[in-house]
Amino acid sequence: MAIYFSSNKIPALQAFSLHQRQAILTLAQAKLSAPEKFILNIIKLLLLIPPFLFIANLQGFALIAAIIIVLIAYFIILRPIMLFFAHKHLDQAIRQYKKSEP
Fold first, then answer.
1. In this predicted structure, what is the pLDDT of residue 89?
2. Which of 20, 70, 79, 86 would bridge 16 by S-S if both were Cys, CB 3.0 to 4.6 A apart?
3. So what's the pLDDT on residue 27?
4. CA–CA separation, 46 vs 52, rounded Å?
5. Predicted structure pTM score
């Protein structure tokens, strides 16, 4: 399975606009099972706790720079993981989105 860094790179979502892709991904994330959600949340915690413990000891400009770096790294690392977990529910989410679309 390929690793996607953006939702517009997923073949099943290329026909949709940004707003539609976000809605479909929200539906796909809602379909995650409890263990999948648990694993995803543990991964988030493992990614966030160490940098924020480091940031707690910084002051001034180093603090601001560290926060910006952590936020960028968080989205670069977590987005592909979230897309990986949601990928297997995309077909169901697309069907659900098309049914609810006016």
1. 93
2. 20
3. 94
4. 11
5. 0.76
Residue 72 DSSP label: H
List of long-range contacts for 41-47, beta carbons under 8 Å, 24+ apart:
43/78, 43/81, 44/78, 47/73, 47/74, 47/77, 47/78
Name the one residue in this structure whose structure tokens are 């690793």.
Answer: 3
Tell me the DSSP string of 51-71: HHHHHTT--THHHHHHHHHHH
Q: Is the dihedral of CA 43, 6, 83, 86 positive or negative?
A: positive
The C-alpha angle with vertex 85 and arms to 79 and 89, in degrees rounded to 5, equals 120
For residues 24 and 95, the answer to whether their CB atoms sit within 8 Å is no
Residue 90: Cβ-neighbour burial (10 angstroms; 0-12, 13-18, 19+): buried
Q: Could you tell me the pLDDT band of residue 35, with boundaries at 50, 70 and 90? A: very high
